[in-house]
Amino acid sequence: MRRLLSIAVTVGVAAGALATGPLMNADAAVAGDPIASTNGLFVDPASPSARWVAANPAHPDAASIRSKISTAPMARWFTGTSDAQIGPAVAAYTGTAVDAGDRLPVLVAYNLPGRDACGGESSGGAANASAYQAWISTFAAAIGDRPAIVVIEPDSLGDFECMSAAQIAERNSLLTFAGRMFAEKAPNSWAYLDAANPKWVSPTIMAQRLQAAGIAKVRGFAVNVSNYVDTAWATQYAGQIRDRLGTTTPYVIDTSRNGNGHNGEWCNPAGRRLGARSLGNPAALQLWIKNPGNSDGTCGIAPNTPAGTFDPAIAVRLIAGT
């Protein structure tokens, strides 16, 4: 999924410095603070790694994968094919987080028409715009008043070079619609538009794309989703985007697999490592958005493992950094 291009990035904030400032966009229609109203991030007992461990308890790598990966808070991804009915699936997941002691769930909405237009490994998505609008509206309504963090459509603002002008216009309209649905129907959630990574899109262009996609109506933006860019560089990139937006918009960094930084490859590269576990700073969240051990596609160190499929061999290499 995460396609990398060599794009020069100028220094905007000190490397490694966490962003500070107001907790939400001045225009964001957010009624509640999901971090303040919960007791820490939710550990999904049905994450891909947890399901594998449960099914393979005697495997020699099970204990390591359990302690290093499946016990960590991470996002649950929802797609048009991952669940037969999106409403009951989202309601069950967020309800389970409440039942686990008022924990905060992280969800990813990943179902745009023409999804992953450049990478192609995770292609698919809703059949058309109206199908997506119905799907995302149901998604938001199923969260309802429960607290949640939602990352909206990874890849969506990075793929423009592989799309026509009409497709881009439709995508911006759908992302704006998605943001509005979460603001209206899930008022205690924080929603973040995906903003690619510094190896893909320049901060100036990304700021323009975020504005066209309705950034003013959501909590903020997410960087490095499913990628390997180290936290210092991702923080720098997020700060540069904010400078160009002219706001103190909060952001999320995906730290799930960035422990060794990137090596110029995006699809199951060797030598990567788990990153720091989720950190709940509301101005600059660091979260495991990608599920470590899930393949990026049939490529790299997992040429036979389709995108989104858990592979214990990938997991073990992320633990060891090999």
Automatic annotation (TrEMBL):
InterPro entries documented for this protein: Beta_cellobiohydrolase (IPR016288), Beta_cellobiohydrolase_sf (IPR036434), Glyco_hydro_6_CS (IPR001524)
Signal peptide from the UniProt entry: 1-19
Classification via Pfam families: Glyco_hydro_6 (PF01341)
Residue numbers annotated as active site: 155 (proton donor)
PROSITE patterns given in the database record: GLYCOSYL_HYDROL_F6_2
Keyword line: Carbohydrate metabolism, Cellulose degradation, Disulfide bond, Glycosidase, Hydrolase, Polysaccharide degradation, Signal
EC number: 3.2.1.-
GO molecular function, one term: cellulase activity
Family: Belongs to the glycosyl hydrolase family 6.
Protein name: Glucanase
Organism whose genome encodes this protein: Catenuloplanes nepalensis
Taxonomic classification: Bacteria, Bacillati, Actinomycetota, Actinomycetes, Micromonosporales
